[in-house]
Specification:
Layout: H1 13-23, H2 34-43
InterPro entries: GcvT/YgfZ/DmdA, GCVT_N, TrmE/GcvT-like
Protein name: GCVT N-terminal domain-containing protein
Organism: Chiloscyllium punctatum (Brownbanded bambooshark)
């Protein structure tokens, strides 16, 4: 699975978030939390660096 880190100016955060959410509507994009991401990581057997 692909992932990205986005570097941007702080003042552009709200506009960037809105653009990503709008572009992802057709794919069912939604917000998720850190606990959900950690659960998915465990299911895939990805290590948590510094924790395991």
């Amino acid at each position: 699975e692909l992932g990205w880190e986005l570097y941007h100016k702080r003042q552009d955060t709200a506009a960037l978030y809105a653009a990503i959410m709008e572009a992802g509507q057709e794919f069912g994009i939604d917000n998720f939390g850190a606990y959900a991401m950690n659960s998915l990581r465990l299911e895939k057997a990805f290590r948590g660096w510094g924790a395991e």
